[in-house]
Design a protein that fits this description.
By secondary structure, this protein is mainly α. It has 22 helices and two strands. The chain has a two-stranded antiparallel sheet with strand order 1-2. It is a multi-pass membrane protein.
């Protein structure tokens, strides 16, 4: 079974090479890309089942080097689950992009560039999830970031180049901080293997631990877009092509959150900064959702809600109990799927209405009732209405915080409730204006409509475009993602039980001897 572990990264890289070589054969590129991601999802599902039933993680020492010295790929329940959900999301977005490419040609997502770059992005994400040492985690980050630099500037419009430059600069700063942290950790403990770092770092003075700890948290916090280093995200994501925005919103920040969870539960378990994380979580939730309320453009609304809901994940991480970590894992799954689905739905709205501004879009309920459903279901899910997965995840986080019961925890509970209500308000306001508002009402303009008068100074969407046809495969891909969001609710019992086991396992120290035994 361990032989399957390297395939998680190797298959996307080989697929990228094949699609690059056969850049002029569109059908072959599509077949290879879709087949690769489907194969990875199956492999990851098999590994998840084996790890969960067997109770033992899989570790592979690449090249046969002894475990402390070579590159170790490590697949436990947490890593396997995230690879499964990520590969499903990547496959759905790929199908969406195929439909967009068939309708628009190579203008937005030129297939000869998009497919190989997309598979390299996937390889970086998967590598980050299964990395067993800090330097390989850094390599995974760099692989996905290099690919994201290309994807975020596809189309080479002025706005994409400008925001892409900001994204690149911020990402490079984060990478430099991460690399500096790795160098300092190696200098302090003589290794970058995570299990060995966890064993040795506890022997360092608390002050030294705190410096190393905070350096990693800042580096990963930039990637996860937590406050106050979240300023770059709302301006960077909305300008990219719809498939790129969807996969970035769903996955890239979660790689940063994943690294934070590994840092807090395993590397620096003996050096707690939970109070600081609670304050950061509250600020991330509230500032992010207030930004969403002040926006008039759908992609920017969703980008700010993305920031605010990362705050829930930091909240659960800072509670630092088994129940809270399990709830956080479940919430990560929920947010990956729901946020991606919403961005895909907004991509369909843009094609149907020619704009993503709620000041311009109207009457879509009559014009596209199916599209109304595809937006409405994930919107109320993200807002936390029962019985959906968003409600389940938030209630679990609030219960975990209430169990601890400190005054700061109570403040966070109220902050989480406020964030949920404002999220629902922002998304349902957009629903009301874009789908229910009639064309006659839209003719009153911003100043004449009290419902949106306060949005007159909000950043505008791109210039009005021509409406475009929506290929059926784009609707099917979005509908499939909506079905996945519903599956998170329908199968919440067994899935949440799995997340509980993950939470329990993450708080158990992983020793070097365990990894050596698993790799052997």
């Amino acid at each position: 079974m361990s032989a399957l572990v390297p395939l998680i990264v190797m298959l996307p890289l080989l697929g990228a090479a094949v699609t690059l070589i056969f850049g002029r054969n569109a059908r072959l590129q599509i077949f290879v890309s879709a087949g690769t991601l489907a194969a990875v999802s199956i492999i990851a599902a098999v590994l998840l089942y084996a790890v969960d039933t067997g109770g033992q993680a899989f570790a592979v020492s690449v090249g046969g080097w002894p475990v402390p010295f070579g590159i170790v790929l490590y697949v436990d329940r947490f890593a396997a689950l995230l690879v499964v959900i990520s590969s499903i999301v990547l496959l759905a977005v790929l199908l969406f992009s195929i439909g967009q490419g068939s309708a628009d040609g190579a203008e937005e997502t030129p297939i000869s560039i998009f497919n190989p770059t997309y598979l390299i992005l996937a390889a970086g994400i998967f590598d980050a999830f299964i990395a067993g040492d800090l330097f390989n985690l850094y390599v995974g980050f760099e692989i996905l970031l290099v690919a994201s630099y290309v994807l975020i500037t596809l189309g080479s419009t002025e706005s994409r180049i400008r925001t892409g430059a900001v994204y690149i600069v911020v990402s490079l700063v984060s990478s430099i901080l991460f690399l500096a942290a790795i160098a300092m950790i190696y200098g302090a403990v003589g290794t970058v293997n995570m299990a060995q770092v966890a064993e040795r770092v506890a022997q360092l003075p608390q002050e030294t631990q705190l410096v190393l700890h905070l350096l990693l948290v800042v580096a990963f916090g930039i990637k996860a877009a937590i406050f106050p280093v979240s300023f770059w995200l709302p301006d960077s994501y909305p300008t990219a092509p719809a498939p790129v925005t969807a996969v970035f919103a769903g996955l890239l920040t979660k790689v940063g959150v994943y690294a934070l969870i590994r840092t807090e539960t395993q590397l620096f378990a003996s050096n707690s900064i939970d109070t600081l994380l609670l304050i950061v979580a509250l600020a991330t939730m509230v500032v992010g959702v207030l930004g969403a309320v002040a926006q008039a453009e759908l992609k920017r609304i969703l980008s700010f809600t993305l920031v605010s809901h990362v705050g829930y994940m930091i909240f659960g991480l800072a509670i630092a109990t088994e129940e809270a970590i399990g709830a956080t894992v479940y919430y990560i799954l929920h947010h990956i799927v729901v946020q991606t689905t919403l961005f895909l739905a907004v991509g369909l709205i843009e094609r149907k209405a020619g704009s993503t501004s709620i000041l311009r879009v109207n009457g879509l309920m009559k014009a596209a009732p199916l599209l109304a459903v595809l937006y409405f279901v994930p919107a109320i899910n993200l807002g936390g209405l029962p019985p959906f997965s968003g409600f389940i995840g938030k209630i679990a986080l609030f219960e975990s915080a209430a169990t601890v019961g400190t005054p700061l925890m109570i403040v966070l509970i109220f902050g989480g409730i406020l964030t949920s209500l404002l999220t629902l308000y922002a998304l349902m306001r957009a629903w009301n204006l874009a789908f229910w508002r009639e064309e006659d009402d839209a003719g009153e303009g911003v100043d004449g409509d009290r419902r949106i008068a306060y949005l007159g100074n909000a950043p505008a969407a791109d210039v009005q475009q021509e409406t475009r046809v929506i290929p059926s495969i784009m609707t099917v891909a979005t509908g499939g993602m909506v079905a996945v969001t519903l599956a998170l609710t329908i199968f919440a019992g067994p899935l949440y039980a799995l997340c509980d086991r993950i939470g329990s396992g993450l708080l158990q120290p992983v020793t070097l001897s365990q990894i050596d035994e698993e790799a052997g």
